[in-house]
Amino acid sequence: MRALAGFALAVLAACSLGAAGPQVGAGSEWTSPGGDPGKIHHSALTQINAQNVNNLGLAWQAKLGTMRGMEATPVMVGGVLYTSGVAGRAYAFDAATGKQLWAFEPKVDMQLNRTACCDMVNRGVAVARGKVYVAALDGWLYALDAKTGAVVWKTDFIENRKKGDNSTGAPEIAGDVVVIGMAGAEYDVRGSVTALDLETGKLRWRWHVVPHDPALGPQETPELEAALRTWDPKSRWDIGGGGAPWDAIAFDSETGYLLVGTGNGGPYATSKRSPAGGDNLYLGSLVALDPKTGRMVWHYQQTPGDDWDFTSTQPLILTHLKIDGQDRSVILHAPKNGFLYVIDRASGKLLKASPIARINWAKGIDPATGKPIPDRAASDYTDGPKIVFPATPGARNWHPASFDPATGLYYAAVLDMGNLIFMTPGQKPLKARGLNNDAALIFTPDVKDALATLPPPMAEAVRALPAYAEALREPSKTQIRAIEPLTGKTVWSADTAGWQDRAGVLTTASGLLIHGNVGGKLFVRETKTGRVLKTIETGTPIMAAPMTYTVNGVQYIAVMAGWGGGGFPYVPRYSAAYDRGNMNRLMVFRLGGGKVNQPPLLPPLEVAPEPPTQVAGANAEMIARGQGLFFGNCAICHANRHRSITPDLRRMQPGTHELFREIVLGGALVAGGMPRWDDILSPSDADAIHSYLIDQQKQTRSDELAKVKAGKPLDGPSLTILSNY
Ligand code: CA
User: Which CATH class is domain 620-723?
Assistant: First the structure.
């Protein structure tokens, strides 16, 4: 009763403050990862509030036994908490007691792990009609019996198994279909959204984001014929074009449309992907589809001619705003490209767009056409390296944002950073199921560090860029911000531990904003000011968004913990995973709960073992070739940092060295998540990579022995990322 009363009060509060429309967020249940039908990540619950939050403590927790990125927001329906984990595992718990009701582990083709740029993550489940829907990493959608976890049906939703498609998103229910997108635009994919019958899993429709090679015949739909005019007929159709809609799929119950944010172009640079240029529809766009037919109703392209991995797959918030005196039904959306957009849900028309981070790929947005005014001089890296703002990890990424109807503010983690980006030479042949983004990135939390890794002429060119001076002028940062949706103005901001410290957020009608950090803390702030009201040390990184619900009149706050996602192998010093590992768990809090036990500290580092003698024929040339192959294929998962999620290959034991070819080419460790590479790498390639790693291990061992001798700690160097993701 207490919770119900709170709910009613919250409704009144929202109305009396003049919030447009009846939207108040989620009630006692949290029915989809976004919470309510608008996915505003806001709760009407008020039992936990500023006066009593100091008593917030652990109600129960579930250790999941895995050690990867946790990105899902749990769902609570009928007293059961459902969530997902590594590669599409799913779990059901009694939401009050934490008793595990069932766990489901899909049999995943680990070979597809090779095409998961950004960890074996999963962003949640859909629950409807007594079933729980979850998508496995290898592109199978499972319908599970909500009571038992038994498989009711499963459907392979990947169109072309020769490609590198994978899946990390949460399914979305739209009428009598369940809709799922796919991931993999760094690889060789053609983006698509698939709708399956809720009851049978039968394919109902598939919508393709980009056209196929026109030489193969007519496109699937008239909208793709229209899109074709924005592509060079000689585009790299073999690579697929990209556009993978890996998140940001929302059914809008007001318009009846299925709203989809599409992904980046592949390869990255338009000059390689579509040499004659063009907007390359429908990359980097929001589209509205008719969920009955799968046909497009409208589109709005946020990043025409994407060169920078600027996905529009960041979470959509559906709400109402008063604009020029009129109540408008809108999408609030901040994609990677640095703007916060307000878009009319019915027409797709741009209403407002405001920068929320430094941007140099566009000079602004033309309000008449809704199109960005490109700044090619600053951001086209076809003829030389550029520092582009925002960086490819995006001003925003998957971390859920929240909209609070009472304050009218948009709350989100925002990254303000540029990155160095440059072409790799020439047009490369297709690498089937391989990285085909074909551009090199260096993230520049410290741009001077990045330059030290470049050949001198390139470093010189970078120093001459205005963006270099800008990067020096103001260091990069990630903040939790409260933002006015119509102006982009920051009302308050709170610095996080570092640029990789981003997290999803929850707001409640009691004026609380709750979010974690990768340092393992859970923060409760005041929505109006950002002031911290309560901090809970958990010792496990928290990137996922918290959610809240009530059972038997008690309000709970739940959150998934685990480091990972894009750049997952690069564990920053400020991540709790660095000191305490990455034990995945679901933590649930309530008033009067107990203390959270932090996982124990990891043992101190030991000096890298002695490497074996070099492989036959190893010389400087072979080692350099191995280094190139390593960065082109392996570095996306193997950071070779001693505190990483994947093994540090500078510390291989003799047995691993002995089996090196078997592991890389023969798939000896596929079950453990290490795919086989014999379709891309030859035995001589594997040997070259091995020679590079032996060389690295020799170097590492000698550096570390010197450190031990000098009495210095063995901690690794400061973070620099060179990556193709
Ligand atoms: Ca991407």
Answer: mainly alpha
